[in-house]
Amino acid sequence: MNGVRRARAGTSAGAPRRRVLVLRALGLGDLLAGVPALRGLRRAFPGDHVVLALSSALREAALTTGAVDEILPAEAPGRGVPDLAHWTGPPPDLAVDLHGNGPASRDALAALRPRRLLAFADGTPEWRADEHERQRWCRFLAAHGIPADPDDLRLPPPGTPSPAPGAVVVHPGAESAARRWPAGRYAAVARHLAAAGHRVVLTGGPREDALVAEVAERAGVPPSDRWPGGLSFARLSALVAHAALLISGDTGLSHLAVAHGTPSVTLFGPVPPRLWGPPPRHRHIALYKPGPPGDPHGETPDPCLLRIGTQEVVVAAGSLLPAPSPTRAAQRAPAPGTRARP
Description:
Layout lengths: L1 H8 L9 E5 L4 H6 L1 H10 L4 E6 L4 H6 L5 E4 L20 E4 L5 H8 L6 E2 L14 H11 L24 E4 L11 H13 L4 E5 L4 H11 L6 E3 L4 H9 L3 E5 L2 H9 L3 E4 L5 H4 L7 E4 L15 H4 L3 H11 L5 H7 L10
Parallel strand pairs: 1-2, 1-4, 2-3, 4-5, 6-7, 6-9, 7-8, 9-10, 10-11
């Protein structure tokens, strides 16, 4: 705990604010899985200036956590290690590598000559491949005298109103094809829930307009209930926070649902939920079919993911959803003889 005591001692009246640089230049899901560790650092260094290096596209999401003061724009193709040479001013007082366990991320921080550097690559503590992401980084900080709670992952309620309060949000996209359940299956689920009386809306990330359009056309979701990558983080966060349910693959939006306490059904494959899944609570269902290890960044849907059937998702969703009103069910029932296209 010496590191924590020194941090608090340095924040006495009149003392300059020291700068803590944290590297985690990955995606939205990675950011949200890292929130417990970031908050541990925030509590350990309450009066210092915490800077987080990550993509500028995630600036609003990062600041919403309340754990960081400033964003250093940083990203690299293929989830690589970014160059941090644009850091300005004196070297960081403390640099923390939450990016990975290899020498590349450690060396990117070391190049700034911080007074103190914490990195898995230095061997303390030992890296464990079969460990949940939230637990991993909290254990890492604890080994350096900085306590962090892996359950400290909730975000504050959004101040922006939801564009579709009470809707079922279906998010068919994912960063890689390996984690992308087929569009036709998402459409079948969406069609079933709409026929049961639930309002179903579709979201998509950058470059997923065609995917959202395909699912929408197959499921009969009107254009007014489609948001293919056009929502700001504030509106996307509000949509998820005030949704009745989120259905998605293992992607950033599933972590956002957990952060807001929104019920969710998450389809896993090839990565098992014990490594990246939601906390074991009744409002989150993680569907997974164990199998041989796969490539989470592969170019085709993983066989484990494809073993999850449409009816299994429908049943899981139904177990988390309240019964819709008879009026809404009648309004949203499909015309006789219609069905989702295969």
